[in-house]
Design brief:
Length: 858
């Protein structure tokens, strides 16, 4: 093999290919070597000393182009020399050039490249990789490792501990920025070398970033690079679930089913839990049903998650529990706890007792061990049902088996007595809790304060609050009496006056206490105390200022309670002003705040303001509740004008559309009183209506009110017709009076009656006498209109419904320019040829008599 001539500018160096080292030094090569990014640029072909294959010539020309100003590539050089030359390039950090040399040799001969890989100095190549990493060229290093791996150089042998630390630093920086996708691309390449990806960056950090940027596909790609992929997939599903992104959750779930060969119960359990987080309990049921269809037996954890997500539905939860028994899945303590929780939410004390007894039976058999959560849940069931004795019995049960009550257990016990109005018993339990060494939370304090407020022991609530707050040097909760036992009411510091109230006789406003527990008031604490202020607005304002000084922000309950306090003293403008301040303070008023303000306006007869607040609610898209509607409907004890009646009827209809049931009888009485106002003998007429009403018991009053509301809508000019079909005589009388009252008020405003008033009594068949109901309605109306109102009432004659249809067809055809022929008439008549023509029974009140009546009444 000939010597290789390396030309540097105009000088040359002759090397012996049998020697391992070149006479040209590395710094000289470093100064002369200039690499380019493309191998496609070809320099003019070099003169060759011997014949080469087309592949080798092409490779040589490519490499010659790459080393254009540094080296004249001689294709007949030895493999030893190429390895030596590549090692020197690696030492100078030119690892991409090393990869280029290896690829060129591979193109010439596969045997040579194997020898080349074995002869390259791995230590120098490792140093070159480390040098590039220190320069921040992480992408260059990874792609170079990929290239040299293809020619037989093992990448893992070239990455030492220092390089791993540098790579870890770069990948963490990329994972914490917008380059997370690029980082995963590079890690996928490293994973192909069996590189330990988990060492580069915390997997949970990468998953969190993928969740933050809402890219489930990227997160799944990363999860597939790590061992225990299913655990990371669960993390991905849960992450998107906490974010409420159900679309990404389902994307990850479908990917899991494709990636994993066998069903994974942990995946199914996580998916069901996430359905609960997103409020999509229906989807959790579909997942469970799909498992059963595929003959996959869920484990206890999947079944428990399913029952927990559907705990609001007692029937479905019990169905799952029974199916669990059919599938021979043994229930554990968590199963019974979830069942108790479901009974608690449903208020089923009886069923909860049965489940509790079953759990105790299994405990006695050694199959289960009841925990504190079990006892706490059953205590809460009894607490909500105000069964405080049963709750205390459960406490004895748990202490007898060695289970120590925790903070939540004590809180439920105190709540049981507080809900029953037993303030002293609740206070005794609080003392017992402190004596046992259990640290109370804010909920325990708030429950005791709430018990005092509900029992109207307002002063006691404030004294307790002051004693708990502690002095400036943070003296804490319970006093130490001479026996050394802690008690919040020490006998030598609190004096009982015999009326259930206790007075602090200590010179300090705070009870001297040990420094074990500290009371930290919450917003809920101040909300409870605000209810104890009664109508003392200034005291309530001081409490709000105090809570702000502690860094507590008033919530909607705080503002609503303050509005109620201000309104309780009769200050309507002040209450509405607080509602406006609530807006400016950044707290959006809710339905409770508006309803409280509306109630205050109604109680103080500011009805115009009350209805304006109601319209404001609707503008802000705040849905009224039952209390809001009921407050407005009961705001008036009587109606004075048609506008007021229309206003309340509109609210009534809106209330029914919203799904609430109004007090129909109360509204009916007011409308009756307003309608009967058109008659001089008002008291006599009301007695008649009341007497006749007894004959219509059982009919829904809402039908009558809706009928009145329909007829009292804004009428079109000249349209005076009352449809009384299907109404009783009492209801018909009321509707007619309502329309007459409307006509009267419209007349006072200047609207003149331009047509007769038609009253439709009913529909019957020709040649058949009307029924008794229609005759009774007709007699009552004739008596009302003629005898009591002195109006002229004439029979309007029987008009066939068929004639009305024909008239409508004629009008329609006339509009379209079509001539009505005898054939058209026959086709119309043929519509109901097999039935007798229907007729309308009508009365007519003449226009002239209406004018006289209106003028007489004016």
């Amino acid at each position: 093999m000939r010597d290789l001539v390396i030309v540097f500018g105009s000088s040359s160096v002759i090397t012996n290919p049998h020697h391992r080292r070149c006479y040209a030094t590395a710094p000289e090569l470093n100064r002369k070597l200039k690499s380019t990014s493309s191998l496609t640029k070809q320099l003019p072909s070099l003169p060759q000393q011997h014949t080469s294959s087309p592949a080798s010539v092409s490779s040589a020309n490519a490499l010659s182009s790459h080393f254009s100003d540094a080296v004249r590539w001689i294709p007949d050089g030895s493999v030893e020399y190429y390895a030596d030359f590549a090692s020197k390039l690696a030492e100078d950090g030119r690892i991409q050039d090393v990869a280029l040399i290896a690829e060129t040799l591979a193109a010439e001969s596969g045997a040579n490249v194997a020898r080349f890989a074995s002869m390259v100095d791995s230590d120098l190549l490792s140093k070159g990789i480390s040098l590039n990493l220190r320069q921040g060229k992480i992408e260059s290093v990874v792609y170079t490792l990929q290239r040299i791996e293809k020619v037989g150089i093992a990448p893992l042998d070239l990455v030492d501990e220092s390089s791993v630390k540098l790579m870890r630093k770069h990948f963490r920086a990329m994972a914490n920025s917008v380059q997370v996708e690029k980082a995963i691309d590079l890690m996928e390449i490293l994973a192909g070398f069996r590189f330990k990806i988990k060492e580069l960056v915390d997997p949970f950090d990468v998953v969190k970033i993928c969740v933050d940027i809402s890219n489930p596909q990227l997160a799944i790609r990363y999860a597939c690079l790590l061992p225990h992929t299913e655990l990371l997939l669960c993390r991905i599903i849960h992450g998107f679930g906490k974010k409420g992104d159900m679309v990404s959750v389902l994307t990850a779930y479908e990917a899991c089913k494709q990636i994993l060969d066998n069903p994974n119960m942990y995946i199914y359990r996580t998916m069901i839990d996430v359905c609960g987080l997103c409020g999509d309990y229906v989807k959790s049921r579909y997942i469970y049903e799909d498992l059963l269809k595929e003959n996959i037996k869920p484990n206890i954890y999947v079944m428990n998650s399913l029952m927990n997500v559907n705990s609001h539905d007692l029937g479905y939860t019990l169905k799952v529990y029974k199916n669990m028994q059919k599938l021979d899945v043994t229930a554990d303590m968590t199963s019974y706890n979830i069942l108790l929780k479901t009974c608690c939410l449903a208020g089923r004390v009886d069923l909860a007792q049965d489940i509790y007894k079953e759990a105790k039976r299994m405990e006695s058999s050694g199959l289960l061990k009841l925990d504190a959560f079990t006892y706490c849940t059953i205590i809460k069931v009894f607490a909500d049902a105000k069964m405080w004795k049963m709750a205390l019995k459960v406490k004895e049960d748990m202490q007898s088996v060695g289970v120590t009550p925790n903070t939540h257990t004590w809180s439920s016990l105190i709540s049981a007595c507080a809900n029953a109005g037993l303030v002293e018993q609740a206070n005794h339990l609080f003392e017992e809790m402190l004596a046992s060494g259990c640290e109370p939370n804010s909920q325990c304090f708030n429950i005791l304060l709430h018990a005092c407020v509900e029992a109207c022991q307002f002063d006691r609530a404030f004294r307790l609050f002051q004693s708990w707050k502690g002095s400036s040097d943070k003296e804490a909760l319970y006093a130490d009496d001479i026996t050394g036992k802690g008690s919040i009411f020490s006998p030598n510091k609190l004096k009982n006056h015999g009326n259930g109230s206790l007075v602090n006789t200590n010179s300090s406003p705070y009870i001297q206490a040990s420094n074990r527990f500290f009371f930290k008031p919450t917003t809920a604490t101040y909300n409870i105390l605000l209810k104890a202020c009664g109508t003392d607005y200034y005291r309530g304002k001081e409490l709000m200022d105090e809570m702000r000084s502690l860094g507590l922000a008033p919530n909607q309950i705080t503002w609503s309670t303050l509005i109620d306090i201000c309104g309780g003293s009769g200050d309507v403008e002040g209450a509405v002003g607080i509602l406006r301040t609530m807006h400016s303070a950044g707290t959006r008023p809710d339905v409770v705040a508006y309803t409280t303000a509306i109630k205050i306006c109604a109680e103080n007869k500011s009805l115009k303001l009350a209805f304006s607040l109601f319209e404001e609610m609707r503008r802000y898209q705040i849905k009224p509740n039952w209390v809001t509607y009921n407050t407005l409907l009961k705001a008036r004890s009587k109606y004075g004008s048609l506008l007021e009646v229309r206003q309340c009827l509109a609210i009534y209809q809106d209330m029914r559309k919203a799904g609430y049931k109004p007090n129909d009888h109360f509204l009916k009485e007011l409308i009756e009183e307003w309608c009967e106002g058109v008659i001089q003998e008002n008291s006599q007429s009301q007695i008649k209506t009341s007497d006749q009403e007894g004959t219509n018991l059982g009919r829904p009053v809402s039908l009558l009110i809706e009928k009145v509301a329909t007829h009292l809508q804004e009428r079109t000019a000249g349209n005076l017709a009352i449809d009384l079909q299907g109404l009783t005589k009492v209801e018909a009388r009321l509707v007619v009076l309502a329309v007459l009252r409307m006509i009267k008020e419209d007349y006072i405003r200047g609207d003149v009656v331009t047509d007769d008033l038609l009253i439709i009594l009913g529909t019957g068949e020709a040649n058949i006498d009307p029924g008794k109901q229609e005759i009774a309605v007709k007699d009552v109306l004739v008596q009302l209109l003629k005898d009591e109102l002195s109006l002229v009432v004439l029979p309007a004659g029987h008009r066939h419904v068929l004639d009305i249809t024909l008239d409508a067809r004629c009008v329609d055809d006339a509009d379209q320019g079509i001539e009505l022929t005898s054939e058209n008439t026959k086709s119309i008549v043929g519509i109901s040829s097999t039935r007798r023509p229907a007729i309308l029974e009508r009365l007519m009140v003449t226009k002239a008599s209406l004018h006289q009546w209106l003028q007489r009444k004016k």
